[in-house]
Structure formats: C-alpha cells, structure tokens
Write a structure and sequence with these properties.
The chain has 324 residues and is of the alpha+beta class. The protein has four helices and 14 strands. The longest helix has 17 residues.
C-alpha cells in the first residue's frame, strides 16, 4: 500500500508540473519518463505493485501476448546493467526504453514500449534479445557489461535546431525504405558522415557507406512499420518493424562490383524496435534491439497490417504517409 501511494504521489506531481499536452495522455514528458523509470525498477525487482500498471494491462514479449501478467521475463530478470535510455511522446502517450539486463547468467538487450492512459500503463511490449533468439543465422551481440548508450541519443536539441515531428517520422521511413531491397540508393533520408548504428549493443560505424554498397540486398521487405513515438525534444523517432528475408537470394553484386553471398538461406524475419536520432536534418545515431522470428510474424498490436507485397519480385511498396 505504501508503494502504491508513493508512485501515485510521484506521478501526480509530475503530471501537474505542466499542462495537459493532448487528449492522448494526461502526462507531460516528466510524468511519462517518471512512469518509465518506475516500470524499469518494478520489472527488475519483479514487483508490479511498484509501478502504475493497469489491472487489465496487455503484455506482449517478443510478439507473443501473455494470458496473464506478470509472466515471461518478469519472472526471470535478475539485474539491470547500466542505465536505461528513456524516451517519451506526450502526444501519443508512449514511453520507449532501451536497456540491458541479466536473467541469472544470461545477458540480453531489452527494448520496451509502454502505452500510458489515464496515468496507468495500459500496454507493455518487450523485444528481448539474447544469443538464443539471434541464432538463425548466427548474429553477433554486444557485451552488456561493456555497452554504453551513445551520449548523443539523450541530448536535448535546441528548439531552433529541431525539425518537425513529420520530418522525424519521414527520416524513420526513409531509413527503412533504404534498407528494403537495398541497391545502394539512399531513399527519403540523409545521414551524417559519421552516423553510427548500435544493434543489440554492437557498434557499426559509417552506416551510410554500408547502405551505398548495396550490402543489404537480401532484405525483401521492411513491413508493418509503426512509428509509435516521436521525442521532439531529443529529436528521436522510434518504430516497430519487421524485416523479411525470403531466402531466395543467393549471390549478388555490390555497387563496387564485388560479389557477396546472402547469409539468409531460408525464410526468416527480424523483429525490432529501432530509434533514429536526427540533428541538422540528418540521421546521426541509430539504436536497435532485434530478434530472429518466424517468417512473416506479426505483432498482436498491429490492427492495420501492410498488404502482401514483394519488392524482390518487383512489386512496389504501398505509399505511406507518416506514421500510424
């Protein structure tokens, strides 16, 4: 009871510190990020009473909806490693969290989506990446003890240097358009020359060069994209998406003329949460947590799935206006 009263007072204090931003959420940024912080602490302590979680919360982990809460990694988490990156969007009532955890002796990278309504967490969605669920094909994963978030991700961008919410969403889709059926063309976005990507704790430098090489030709579709959070102060858009590999591509040619062989030899899908930091109207840093999943898997939260299409066979991607 004391804990419930404590978080109730903390949230009320955060919410009344600023005016209501939109009808989508009664929380401003401070309120949402405080809820995100409470959630992480409650999760690591395995104590759902320590966070404002609705009694009828929907909980999905790695695209599987649990019939009860708590369940899944709520029962196995033993430690948070390092500091969480907490992002928020008062317009949609969403909180996005990127962190790393231990489940006994099993390290993992965890991305979280929280939907807040009436000052309670109504939806919880986890993407939890461990070596086990990255095994097909074998994919490197970082060391949770050594990984640190790129400092630029948490920087507040001065108001006069920000781009619009719509432009941030466009950068996210431009990144995915460039990744899909990658031929070396940069589509709908721009990158700083030193832009980095952090995938499951591993750092990849000069990401634009990788795209321009056509290295990712094996990505047939990047579908069911949902840019669910736009942190306008930090200039970060966060999306859920699925990358499909049909497994039909064998050898292909990079833009420099060299030959490459696809590592995907059977139908396969990456399921991910990915965030894009923008400065000077360019992507400067990307953070992603992803897992291997059954081919063409979909999230239980998707109510408007993309139509079936296949860029590998020449079908055009349906035109998308902004995020859902």
């Amino acid at each position: 009871m004391r804990r419930i009263l404590a978080w109730t007072l903390l949230i009320a204090s955060a919410c009344t510190a600023g005016a209501r931003v939109t009808e989508a959420s009664s929380c401003d940024k401070a309120c949402l990020e405080r809820i995100g912080d409470l959630y992480v602490k409650a999760y690591v302590d395995r104590d759902p009473s320590a966070a404002p979680i609705a009694s009828d919360v929907r909980f999905v982990e790695n695209n599987v909806e649990m019939l009860r809460f708590p369940d899944a990694s709520w029962d196995t988490v033993t430690e948070e490693v390092g500091e969480a990156l907490i992002l928020s969007d008062p317009r949609t009532g969403h909180v996005g969290i990127f962190t790393s955890i231990m489940q006994n002796d099993v390290p993992g990278f965890l991305a979280i989506r929280l939907k807040v309504a009436d000052d309670e967490i109504a939806e919880i969605e986890h993407i939890l990446s461990t070596r086990r669920n990255l095994s097909g094909p074998p994919t490197p994963i970082g060391d949770v003890r050594e990984y640190e978030h790129d400092p630029v991700l948490n920087e507040i961008v001065p108001v006069d240097e920000r781009v619009s919410r719509e432009r941030l969403i466009a950068h996210a889709h431009g990144y995915f358009d460039t990744l899909e059926n990658n031929t070396g063309e940069i589509r709908g976005t721009r990158f700083s020359p030193d832009a980095k990507r952090f995938e499951n704790g591993l750092e990849f430098e000069r990401i634009e060069e990788g795209f321009k090489s056509g290295r990712y030709r094996f990505n047939n579709r990047v579908r069911d994209r949902d840019v669910f959070l736009v942190d306008e102060e930090r200039q970060i858009a966060v999306a859920r998406a699925y990358i499909d590999h049909k497994g039909v591509l064998d050898e292909y040619t990079l833009t420099d003329g060299s030959k490459q062989r696809s590592v995907f030899r059977e139908p396969h899908t990456w399921s991910l949460f990915e965030g894009f930091k923008v400065k000077d109207d360019r992507i400067v840093s990307v953070i992603a947590t992803f897992i291997g999943a059954p081919y063409y898997i979909r999230s239980p939260f998707i109510t408007d799935p993309d139509p079936v299409y296949d860029t590998h066979q020449g079908e055009a991607r349906p035109k998308r206006e902004g995020g859902r």
